[in-house]
Structures are given as structure tokens and as C-alpha cells.
Amino acid sequence: MRTGRVVTYVVLIGAALLVIFPVYYVIAGSVMSPGQISSYPPDLVPHGLFTGNYKGATSSGTPIGQQYLNSILQTSIITLSQLITSVLAAYAFVFMKMWGRTVLFGLFLATLMVPWESIVLPNYLTITSWELNGHGLTKTYAGTMIALVLPFLANAFGVFLLRQSFLQFPVELRDAATIDGAGHWRFLSRILLPLNKPALTAVGLYVFLSAWNQFFWPLLIGDTASRRTLQIGISQLNDAEAADPGLILAGVTLSILPTLAIVIFGQRFIVRGLTAGAIR
Amino acid sequence: MTTNSVPARAGRRPTPVSLVSWLMLVPCLVVFALFIIWPLGKSVSLSLHGSDLFGRPDAYVGLQHYKDMLGSAEFRHILWVTFAFVLLTVIPGVLGALVVVLLLEQHIKGIRIFRTAFALPFAFSVASASVIFATIYNPAIGLANGLLGRFGVDRIGWLTDPSWALISVAITTVWMSIGYNVLVLSAGIGAIPAEINEAATLDGAGGFSASRYITIPLLGPQLFFLIVISTIQSLQGFGQIKILTPEGGPEQSTKTLVYSIYHTAFANNASDFGAASAQAIVLLVILLACTAIQFGVLERRVHYK
């Protein structure tokens, strides 16, 4: 029994160290001097705080600052839009009489089974053929931002999660609101949404994480570095500054700050969103 | 099924509820129609057309792309790499998470610290994780070779050696997915009724035998779900391959189906949306089959309840 206990801890700590190590290394490496990070044998504890990497990452040929703003803009629009469209659709599915409700919900779920990679080419052809003020969408800054978010303004996953949550809403409460004369809008805004904050937070954080982390679509959209998202930016930083790992790691550290904060402080909310399909 | 419906409101002008509810669905429906449903048909149509110099669709060629694909050794290689990548990511990812979760169940101290530690990779996008691993894999100054060198192991061409490149990309992928897998299995264990474990303990089952005969069988649905979901995600893996091995790896050793779709459509001077779309349809069929298996088996349940 005793040795079993020791083995358990040894294996767990070993596994945890393996998982944490890249997280440690990206932060520690970002404050190591160029000499230290490429020293042999490897030296894993930073000698003080070297800030040169951060200066380098923010002033290199890759405009990380602008790309940061692009990502914030892109992610905020997608998150806000998906919250609104999901609330509207989930509300209609749960609280309104509607012809063809079951079939429509089936259609919504079916869209989740279509992998993005199998429809990315026609979407690329569509988006690049559209114009804004006489310019191709991807030829201007505003157009690029629109092209980045358009296909993701709605997603059935948020509808699915919110519908689950709305379905659990006590019938008595809704009846009471109706008797008191609350119409659909009043019931939705004053009663339903405030009481469904955990579900809304779960959907919001989940959408934020997946939008922030997008790679394939932003790789195709954006003709110049200053119109690209941060994810593409750090991958180009990786190509352009291969001789300077500290600088690359500083760029990566900056790019994960928002999502790291979400994972550490919003863990219980994302757990809900991420395991929604797994536990029945 | 739901029986929710708002009772008619007396004394008010009746609203055409059905119309309003349809209007509430319009934003979603427009997005789905424009960017999912229509492109699905368009993908099929593209796959039946040739491509002009710029890769844009031109003449109808029927099933020619499919015939070319099925007859080419390169496409068989791509399918093989895709299959190998799935095996190299799904098996270690699910088994590793299972071991971790079973150990976490042994009433250990500091369980919350461990949980947070295993959740951390969530914060990393495919791009950030891949860039970190690219730094670690760097042949000259990377940590992987640096640390191995201390034990007298020769330098490994993590991303440049054809026999290692796919493994290195798979390691990165497993790292990215392990947190999610731990989370799903933990939630599954949490849902096992306490009485079952108590009864097992009273019967003298503890530690290993409890895991073997009680926890693992009861985790059946979650394990199955994870295997299918991880397979689907592996089949869709792109960013890590593009970043770690920009040209599809040495000797095309990391050229999976999704990477090949991208490469066929967007490679310099060889852009071919028709052929790329035919590959996209193959991907769609494979992924739909995975989803169908998932629904089919989950309906019948994996364990007895």
C-alpha cells in the first residue's frame, strides 16, 4: 500500500511536470538573455529579468501590437454576435410555438457535423469575390476584419448549450411572469437572461477561446502583416526570428495572456462548455 | 421533449408567434445557409470542375479528380500519414489521460493543483503551442536536444528527419489535447455514484482492482466519446502541421489530408481548387462516418446501466 502511494505521486508529479514544462519554458525563456537561452548545457532558470525580448517582439518586422488589436476586434465581434444570435435562436426553440421546430433544430445540430476544412475553399472563393466600397473585401483593413468574422457570426454550438439551459428553467417562474403581463421581450431580458448568467458566461468564454485561437481561416484572410491576427503573427515571428528564441517566446507569452487568464479564473465555466457533449 | 409554449395572453393584440419565432432564427439561418450549407454543395460542384491558371474553377470534368486521386500513390501516402497521425495522437492522448485520472482518484493530496496543472494547455492556441514546440525542437539550440545531450543521446532531427517529424507533431498535439481529455474523464468519474465505490471497498476491491473492474468499465461512454472526438480533431489537425513542418514535412512525412487540401488549393504556382475540393469531400465523408459511429454507438450505450 505504501509503495503504491509513492508510485502514484511519482507518476502524477512526473506527468504534471511534463504538461507544465512548456508553459514554464515559454514564460521563463521570454525573460532569458539570448546567451542564456541558447546555452549548452541548457540553463532553465532565468538569471534575472531580461526585458530585451519583449522590446524586440513589439518592435520587430511583425507588427504584434496592431495584430493584438486585430485579434481583440475579431474575437469581440464574434463573441458578441454569437451570444446574441444564440440567445435569440435558443429562446425561439424553447419558449415559442413554431411550425417545424424539431426539423429546424435537427438542421442546426447537423451544421455542427460539417468540418470547417471541407467547406473552407468555397467560403474563401465567396468572401474574396465580395466587395466593400468598390474594393475586394480582403484588400482593405475594414474589409479584412469583416471577412475574418462573417462566417462565424453564428454557431449552433452556442444555441445548443443555451437551449439546454433554458429547458431547465422552472415552468412556474415563466407562468408567473406571463400572468404578471410580461411579454416575450420583458421575460427574456429581465428574468431569463439574468438567471442564466452561468450558461451565458460558459458560451461567451468558449466562443472567445475558439475565436481567439483560430488559425486556418485567418491564415487565408489578410493580405498584409498589419491586417493579420495575432495567431498568424506569432507563427510568422517564429519563421522570421528563428535565431532568436527568446524574442519568439516573448511574443507567444503576450499572445496567451488573455486565454491564460480565462483558463485560470474561468475554469469552472469552460468546464461546463467543454464537457457539454461528453456527459449525458 | 419540451412542451413549453407561452399561453395565449388574454386582452392583448395577438402576436403571430410563429412568425416572430422564425425571425429570431433568421440571423443563425442566414449564416448557416451562406457559410455552411451552400458551401457544402459548392464543394461538391468544385470537385467536379477543373481549375484555370489561378486555381479558379473552369470546365466540368466529372469524376476525373476522384479517379486521379484514387489511382495515385501520393494520395495513398497522404491517407496513410493521416491514419498514422490519428493513431499517434489518439492512443497516447486518451491512455495518458486515463492513467492520470485514475491516479487522481486515489484520494491524493493537492488534487486541485494537479487539476489546474493539467488544464493549463487549454490556454494555448494551436499556433502558440506549435511555436513553443518549434523552439524546443530547434535542432541546434533547442531544449529537446540540449537535455538529451546531457544524457549522451545524439541530436535528433525532430522536424527534419522523416521518421521523427510526424511523431514530433503528434507529441505537440497530445500536449494540446491532454487537458481536455483529463477534464472529460474527471467529469465522468464524478458522475459515478458513490455507493458503487463504497460497495466495492466493502467487498475488498481497492486501488488497481477497483479501477480495473469498476471505474474503467463505468467510464466506457466517456472513453468512447473521447476516442471519437480525438479522432475527429486529429483528422482536422492543421495549424501544428503547417507551423512545425511548413512544407508537409521532410519527404512529405507529415502531409495529412487537411494539409494536402490546403497545399493543393494554395501552393504557389500549383493552385488547384478542383482537386483540393475532391480531397475535401473525402475528408467530409470520413468525418461524417466518425460522427455516425459516435451517434450509433452512444445510442446503444457502452456499458450496462
UniProtKB/TrEMBL annotation, chain A:
It is found in: Cell membrane. SUPFAM superfamilies: MetI-like. Keywords: Cell membrane, Membrane, Transmembrane, Transmembrane helix, Transport. Gene3D superfamilies: MetI-like. Residues 68-266 form the ABC transmembrane type-1 domain. The chain crosses the membrane at residues 7-27, 72-95, 102-121, 141-162, 199-220, 247-271. The keyword Transmembrane helix applies. It comes from the Bacteria. PANTHER family: ABC TRANSPORTER PERMEASE PROTEIN MG189-RELATED-RELATED, SN-GLYCEROL-3-PHOSPHATE TRANSPORT SYSTEM PERMEASE PROTEIN UGPE. Belongs to the binding-protein-dependent transport system permease family. This is Carbohydrate ABC transporter membrane protein 2 (CUT1 family). It comes from Kribbella pratensis.
UniProtKB/TrEMBL annotation, chain B:
The keyword Membrane applies. Keywords: Cell membrane, Membrane, Transmembrane, Transmembrane helix, Transport. The chain crosses the membrane at residues 19-38, 78-104, 116-137, 164-192, 213-232, 276-298. InterPro entries: ABC_transporter_permease, MetI-like, MetI-like_sf. It comes from the Bacteria. Pfam families: BPD_transp_1. The keyword Transport applies. It is a multi-pass membrane protein. Its main location: membrane. CDD domains: TM_PBP2 (cd06261). It is found in: Cell membrane. PROSITE patterns: ABC_TM1. Residues 75-294 form the ABC transmembrane type-1 domain. Belongs to the binding-protein-dependent transport system permease family. This is Sn-glycerol 3-phosphate transport system permease protein. It comes from Kribbella pratensis.
